[in-house]
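dumping this here before i forget
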Amino acid sequence: MGMRESNIWLVDAVRWDTGYLPNHPLRSVRAWFQQHFPRFTLQYSTAEDLIEAGIPANAEKIILSGSPRDAWDNDPFTLRLAERVREISERQIRFLGVCYGHQMLARALGGEVQKEKKGLEFGNATVNLTPAGSLSALFRDLPETFSVLQSHSDAVTKLPPSAQLLATGEHTHVQAFQHGSAMFGVQFHPETTPEILRYLWEPRVPKWQPNLSYDLHQKLNHLFPAKNAVKILQNFSEL
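structure:
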């Protein structure tokens, strides 16, 4: 029996630089997420598609990926993407923002995003569910404390009005939140693996290492899978 197409749309916001060859098997945001949805095929578009063509008519759920872009920027792309996220909210389409997507959700709905004062949060880290997080369907069957994989230097510094904080962390406080019954954001990367993070970050070490207080190579060499965090994607698909 073949896989069926879903009405879950992955919106790919990644902007690749020239150091990543187009034909490399790990250079596929779609594949990063699709591996966690073995029963059906995710629909796919780029963030540029979403901006230009609008929200797909059959979209029941939308995931907005991470990105090296900055959600606090005021460039035309960011402002137009924020408009689309507000439209998704107004249409009450279920939404999951991951890292940059989480930050864009916060900004679009009236929160604030800034550079993380503590700098880059990278590698395995622990997040803690709040009482609201423990009750949220997004975190069904997850313990109150679990390991995740992180890769971000920006952070949500103020939640949108009426949003609920779902998870916190030591480095970055806002690790997950919910707005209304349909909009969710997670600062960490439930879709990623140590292999993907090493692929993304090994070329970046020379640029980032001088500004870090820890050994980035050491972190890259000691990554381990965050198996609990993966459940969040399955939970979202069942909302």
